[in-house]
Amino acid sequence: FARRHCVGDGIVSWDSKIADLDPAFRLAEAYPTSQLTIRDLFSHRSGLPGTAGDDLEDIGYDRAEILHRLRFVPPSSSFRAGYSYSNFGLTEGAVAAAMPTGKSWEDVAEEKLYRPLGMASTSSRHADFLKHPDRAALHVRVDGAWAAKIERDPDAQAPAGGVSSTARDLAQWVRLVLGDGAHAGKTLIAADALAQTHAPLMTRGRNPVSGGESFYGLGWNVEFGRHGLSWGHAGAFSVGARTLVTIFPKEKLGIVILANAFPTGVPEGLSDSFADLVFDGAVEQDWVNAWDGIYAGMFGPVVEAAKATFAAPPSPARPAGPASAYAGRYANDFIGQADVSSAGDGLVLRVGPTSARSYSLTHFDGDLFLIYPDAEMPDRPTGVSFVVGPDGKASTITIEFLDDNHLGTLRRVAD
Length: 415
Prior knowledge:
Low-confidence stretches: none
Number of helices: 15
Structural class: alpha+beta
Radius of gyration: 23 Å
Strand order of the largest sheet: 12-13-14-15-16-17-18-19
Distance between the termini: 49 Å
CATH topology of the domain at 323-414: Lipocalin
Largest sheet: 8 strands, antiparallel, barrel
Helix content: 25-40%
Mean pLDDT: 94
Strand content: 15-25%
């Protein structure tokens, strides 16, 4: 919404080119780079794959470095031809929109949105969240029980998923949306700039539970469902956070639900139940159960498939080579450096800025090893494989959990 203030204030327009606002930013191809607009990034039609940059955030890179390295990511679709939700694409749109002000996006959000709305418990800085005495811990399921296991600092992608807030504060934001950019008699966002965010631009298919048609505007899901037109958005971090806002503009009705757990479909289930009660006077079905199934299916099958794949090595398993075959430094433009070194009787892989993340390698078969990189899914194995040449040295390493966009293979650059 801070971006909408910049648009509403005439500082930029939705069609301002990123090349003019942030000339240093690049996509993989020249033409999309030259034509890319804020509108493209906020409707997720830039061609960036949805996970681009999330992997770099996982291994400790900051926002500036991640946005720089997006230039190395091959597009997943032609420019403006496909929808792929990209946290760091949207983040670049926000950062670029704030640049003409000479201020950070976080400062613009506070100055133009949170403060005028009296959202005193809302911030786009993780440090402010940590200072708050009354804050919720993130929870994930561990052995069938909810546990406050993981802390997450989302500052790198704060415009896309790093706001901390309260239900009371967000109610003021919903009133602003329902008021066409006006709040308490004062216009904070130009109505036209705000209205453009609700125009369907990209198709998202059908709602997985209700079956209604679903589209994407500028930072909003736009749906035509059982109760008519709605605007909304969900948020989820697998480390233990869920959020949802649903707005029915014709009825001037909105609901915000915040949850400190994952996986859970409670936010969508409550929202759908609320809408049924308002529009029909009775809840049609157990929406929480239906949505729980959707969210459980996001990761459960993936984890179980990985566990099944690596349940046991082949028999007989091929032995690993000597540690010297694998030890060394590997690199590519996107991941940066990866160091493999001996540690006692085993090997350790270090990746990220200043080797921020380290993982013990467990031998599986031949030149294939396993690591367990996911704090939220600690029993999910993923592969690390080497290609060993006739000289007895590995020439490449492929790190599976960093290979979503086929950028997880790094070449040896030093012993």
